[in-house]
Amino acid sequence: MAKAEYRLILKHADEPGYTVDIDCYLSHGGYQVLKKALAMPPDQIIQEVKISGLRGRGGAGFPTGVKWGFINHEKNTKPVYLLCNADESEPGTFKDRQIIYKDPHQLIEGMVISAYANRAHLAYIYIRGEFAKGAEILEKALAEARERNFLGKNILGSGYELEIYVFRGAGAYICGEETGLIESLEGKRAYPRIKPPYFPAVLGLYMCPTIVNNVETLCHVKHIVEMGGAEYARIGTPNNTGTRIWCVSGDVNKPGYYEYPCGAITFGELLYEVCGGIRNGNKLKAVIPGGSSAKVLRADKKYKIPKKKEDGSTEIVEMGLEDIPLDFDTVAATGSMSGSGGIIVMDHTRDMVECLRNIAEFYAHESCGQCTPCREGSLWMKKMLDRICTGGGRPEDSKLLLEVANHIAGRTICAFGEACSWPVQSFVEMFGEEFEAKQRKESSLEILEPLTNRTA
Amino acid sequence: MNATEKDLPQLEESFIEEAERIISQYPVSKRSASLPLLHLWQRHFGFVSPQGVQWIAEKLDLEPIAVEEIATFYPMIRQRPLGHYQFKVCRTLSCALAGSYEIFEYIKKSCKTVNEVGHHVYVSEDGKFSVEFVECLAACGNAPVMMLNEEEWMDVTQTKIDAILNHLIREKRKEEF
């Protein structure tokens, strides 16, 4: 039996009869937490979020309370803005979609609470352009909330004023990067900003302090205020609190989204029990654990994971991929990351060079073109993979791939540099023999299913 | 770009009202409305023409180049018309693993989209259909995924494509009568 899900964020999302209407949300206790929050001093909400240990669900896993704490409200004289990052552009991720399409008022309630805590009076939801229907749902939900006085001039008689608008992106991955998102919202090309300042909390939208949080993160805030930070922190494991929605796609029998407390389930349990195993009874070959930018993990490799013992000391434990618990820190200890929670599974029939070529094409297409190493390097890597896959590989190619990748990471304005080089570095390191065989044009790999039937 | 007022298509009152409503959502800087207005223009006219860029620029007190640079940056904003029915098939890994390349080829064949008008973009001779590859549509658990105009389709199969095309052709005939 597969472990039962613990649905906090998606509690009602798939319930029969549950709709996106405000009346449905209200009849399920909706906006009650907002009432509670508006009676609290804003700093107390920030404190509860700090105590909860909530970490951002967009990919980087940065502590939300710490991010909020960067604004000094005593000294600040500028307006503060709250932005909801609903760009959900990391390949493999489809969790925010579930919230937006099925429970939009939960997001709005979370946003009003977060905006109140951060003294913001204007907030935007930056939603990816492809979610045309999602934007419509949100617009309607916001109008309903406005009508019922959960938004507007004097919310529930508290004197607090907030307006939220929806802003649609237009198909650019880079808008998920928070400073790119801000530039885009300012009506410019989404070129990420030079750091420092490292956080838009210092200089953000219209050069004012700005908090950018992911959709799921903002929903968690609602639950933290509801149950209290300390109680929330009991879900999950220390430093990995709360639930996470894992999005599984690729070669499993039951792909989908599954919500569990952090660390409550291992890769093996998730893939074999929850997701019904690998398709066609095939063998697991590799897993990308946190969206396509995360480093790929090989199924037959042992990973050295530091583990805290009861006396407080740390020991190194060897673990197979299947035994690794899904949280932030353990996945990070493998050298990869749990990122946005997008888990892409590949079975033993997959040609890893083709898989990497697919990912490399994504990054070559999505590089914003601002920094030379990324703009040139992402395309160069894609071209090299094209030629390896179409029979024109050269013996030195995998070394050259690594060399190009190593010269991008750490040399760009934003983390896209890492995002496009990590897959290349990890695929070549983990599956070097496949690359070399392909470069030598050995036919032993012909049994592998081609990912594409195109001719480049 | 030398678009003058007389080149502009006749804009309906409701279009201008909608534009004003959008601009009002950006009280701090009108410039923020550039991309939303490009979306609005494209929804109305199918693509963004130089006249569209000019009109938006004037509306927002910007140089046309400031709008043009946005229009050319974002993949969803088009500078030329595409098919009346636009298939956008996800190309990224999870969908590719689930056979999106085959789906792409199947739509290409079924819709006779023979003219390649851009990288991974094909249009049929009569201009009714276009097929293009797009990057991740964020529905990877239901791969392969595609969009038909602004509508999302999950777990796409060749049978589903056949059914969709049959439906579209029937609708089209109804319109012609």
Radius of gyration of chain B: 18 Å
Give the count of structural domains of chain A: 3
Molecular shape of chain A: globular
Give the second-level CATH assignment, the architecture of the largest domain in chain B: 3-Layer(aba) Sandwich
**What does the largest sheet of chain B look like?**
6 strands, mixed
Largest sheet of chain A: 5 strands, mixed
**Low-confidence runs of chain A:** none
CATH topology of the largest domain in chain B: Glutaredoxin
Output the CATH homologous superfamily of the largest domain in chain B: Glutaredoxin
User: Within the largest sheet of chain B, what's the order of strands?
Assistant: 2-3-4-1-5-6
Helical content band of chain A: 25-40%
For the record, what CATH class of the largest domain in chain A applies? Alpha Beta
Q: Low-confidence segments of chain B, ≥5 residues, pLDDT <50?
A: none
Structural class of chain A: alpha/beta
Total helical elements of chain B: 7
Total beta strands of chain A: 13
Number of strands of chain B: 6
Strand content bin of chain A: 15-25%
What portion of residues of chain B is helical?
40-55%
Cα distance, first to last residue of chain A?
Answer: 45 Å
Number of separate helices of chain A: 17
Describe the structure.
Chain A folds into 3 domains: 22-234, NADH-ubiquinone oxidoreductase 51kDa subunit (Rossmann fold), CATH 3.40.50.11540; 239-347, Ubiquitin-like (UB roll) (Roll), CATH 3.10.20; 352-447, NADH-ubiquinone oxidoreductase 51kDa subunit, iron-sulphur binding domain (de novo design (two linked rop proteins), Up-down Bundle). Chain A has 17 helices and 13 strands. In chain A, the strands form 4 sheets. In chain A, strands 8-7-13-9-10 form a 5-stranded mixed sheet, with no helix packed on it. In chain A, strands 3-2-1-4 form a 4-stranded parallel sheet, sandwiched between helices. Chain A is 38% helix and 16% strand. With 456 residues, chain A is α/β, with parallel strands linked by helices. A 6-stranded mixed sheet of chain B has the order 2-3-4-1-5-6, with helices on one face. Chain B has 177 residues and is of the alpha+beta class. The model of chain B has no long low-confidence stretch (mean pLDDT 92). Chain B is built from 7 helices and 6 strands; from the N terminus they run ααααβααβββββα. In chain B, β2 (115-118) and β3 form a beta hairpin. Chains A and B meet through β3, β7, β13 and α13 of A and α2, α4, α5 and α6 of B.
